[in-house]
Specification:
43% of the residues lie in helices and 0% in strands. It has one domain. Helix 4 runs antiparallel to helix 5 and helix 5 packs antiparallel against helix 6. It has 210 residues and is mainly α. The chain has seven helices and no strands. The C terminus is likely disordered.
Length: 210
Amino acid sequence: SPHIEHSSEDPQAFPDWYNRAVTNLMGRDLGESWVSVVLKWGVLERALGYGKISKGSLPVRGRPEEWTQWTNKGPKGARNHDHSPFIDDPAEIGLAITSWWTSIQPSFRRTDTGILLPIDTDADSSAEGDVWAPIRKSGTNGLLSLMMLLYWWGCAAKDGPAPFREDSRGQWADLVDDVSSCLGVMTATVPLRAQKRGGDEPEATTRPKR
């Protein structure tokens, strides 16, 4: 399966939790767009020091319960990447993930209809400040939760729907594309202090004024 090469300059660059997560996320062939989004997430995690900067969880309101159930089942909080949660209806969890992702987007993307507006790459320098800070979260409870939920949905939907179930593969692909775009912008707008410190500073979420 695909793997991310370790840096020869920094053998300690990848913490164990990250290695386990990437191995899991690359465990099934979900297509090139999926490989791309996992790599983009990895680039952002590296920029944030794998949890040293902007550590925290994504907003929990509306988050599908499968994540919490999975994290609570492991001994002493360890994540069991060998056992994914059972997804009875891929379309149902897909709707839940999409609704959650939509609800935590920056305000400039949200609409009354629930359809997200295209990403405005200039929004980060607007009067609102760093609009991506609330979801640019690294570490074991950050964007990893979204990535795992997307992976579980993708695996459950991959082979097509069971009888009387809706085919959600198109919706999954659309959300993967949207997450990919957001990860790109979040990486491009990582606060400059964070980039210079290389993850040594515990928190750096404010963007310096130009």
